[in-house]
Amino acid sequence: MRPLRACLGAAAAVTLAAAGTTALVAGNASGATTALDNRWYAAAPYLMPLDNDPPDPSAIMDASGLKAFQLAFVLAPNGGGCSPTWGGTAPVSSDTAVQSMISTIRSKGGDVSVSIGGYGGTKLGQTCSDAASTAAAYQQVITKYGLHAIDFDLEEPEYENTAAIKNEIGAAKILQQNNPGLYVSVTTAGTADGTGWFGKQMLLEAKSQGFTPNNFSIMPFDGGFNGAASQTSALTNFNSILQSTFGWDQATAYAHEGFSGMNGRSDSGEYFTQADFQTVLDYATSHHMDRFTFWSLNRDRQCTPPDNGGRTSGTCSSVAQNSWDFAKYSVHFAGATPPSTTPTPTPTPTPTSCKSAWSSTAVYTAGNEVSYNKHNWKAKWWTQNETPGASEWGPWQDEGAC
After folding, report:
1. Shortest CA distance to 178 belongs to which of 140, 152, 126?
2. Helices in 179-227 by DSSP H: which ranges?
3. What is the model's pLDDT at position 10?
4. How does DSSP assign 286-316, residue by residue?
5. For a FRET experiment, which of 52, 95, 373, 377 has its CA 20 to 30 Å from that of 196?
């Protein structure tokens, strides 16, 4: 993505043995390829490889020219413990599904970063005893997949936990030292002022530990935002926070600043169109920012019906678009040019039959299927009287139109 920059953080005297980790080696047994340019890792949009109707990365690469993907999310096991899982349920140690997707991407000349944390769920920084054990858990992910990049998505509810954030920042620093050349991004919530109190406390923790990632990114959505102007204003304010926290000048702060948006309709009903993305992209490139990404590729396609009833979906954007429109802004940020021709679109599959209608009084457990608002839904866990589709992070997974 952007040019490789030297890390500014002071070196810490933490050894591989103390962290219980193994240094990254490009081209190791995991099938890692030679790393892409950092500009690509900085432009990698988020993709959930196991949930929210994962799209085919090959199709995205062919249609948009995208080369890098930000796979999400690695969490602690739902039952507790200090070992990495996908989404709290699928152990990284025994994974084959995500590994297969990564192999497909690399076979086409691309690569991935992995994001840890995210909104909701139990994070490893909460369950591991200290920074070293947290780093050791993440090192398992780096080693298994031969990663050249990793993203720390520090937000609700973890970033309200001082001890957990200390573990996460400490782990990020250890990984940065033990894996030379590892691209490290730290993503947190955005507000109109740049970031809130907990985001500022996270920055102070990084300063106190002498840790500087490639960038600190904010997510200017779900906080009363209204289009691109409000987002660029937040990025300007966040730049001032970085300057005052780390003593950087404006240009240095922008060189360590990132944007992580949400394409289409946000969780709180805000709308961000292709025009908004273009405006923010112009801002990011003109200020020489270090990252431009978005949540998510699973949503980078038009809903059926196109207005989707005005709800936020994990599988489509709720705005008028062609598939992978938003991915092309990441391609531009990486310095590449999307293909000029559009491949023949895959025919829309015939909707399946509807399951039994959802009932507000019934009790549902993981795997139960219902229909609601002309979509089928599958329960992720025990639930009662929680409307399907009310929240992307709720107990129901959208299985498509019926």
Report:
1. 140
2. 197-209
3. 27
4. HTT-SEEEEE-GGG-S--SSTTGGG---SS-
5. 52
321: left (phi over 0), alpha (psi -120 to 50) or beta: beta
Does residue 267 carry a pLDDT above 80? yes
Q: What is the pLDDT of residues 102-133, one digit of tens each?
A: 999 999 999 999 999 999 899 999 999 999 99
Chain length of the chain:
402
For 190-223, b/e burial (b = at least 16 CB within 10 A) is bbebbbbebbbebbebbeebebbbbbbbbbbbbb
- In degrees, to the nearest 5, what angle opens at C-alpha 40 toward C-alphas 116 and 34? 90
- Whether the per-residue pLDDT at 282 is higher than 50: the answer is yes
Report the candidate in 269, 316, 274 with the shortest Cα–Cα distance to residue 296.
Answer: 316
Write the pLDDT tens digit of every residue in 176-192: 999 999 999 999 999 99
Mean pLDDT, the chain, whole residue set: 88
Selected residue with higher pLDDT from 346 and 308: 308
Contacts 24+ apart (CB under 8 A), 371-380: 371/402, 373/309, 373/311, 374/401, 374/402, 375/399, 375/400, 375/401, 375/402, 376/352, 376/400, 376/402
CA distance 328 to 274: 10
**Axis crossing angle, helix 162-178 with helix 131-145, rounded to the nearest 10:** 50
* pLDDT score of 307 more than 80: no
* Alpha carbon separation from 78 to 90, 96, 378, 400 (Å, rounded): 10, 20, 19, 26
Confidence class for position 366, pLDDT limits 50, 70, 90: confident
**Contact at 8 Å (CB) between 263 and 323?**
no
Residue from 155, 257, 270, 399 carrying the catalytic annotation: 155
194-202: list long-range contacts, CB under 8 Å, 24+ apart: 194/218, 194/234, 194/235, 194/237, 194/238, 194/239, 194/240, 194/241, 195/238, 195/241, 198/159, 198/160, 199/159, 200/241, 200/245, 201/159, 201/162, 201/165, 202/154, 202/159, 202/165, 202/169
Cross-strand pairs, 111: 68
Active site residue 257: no
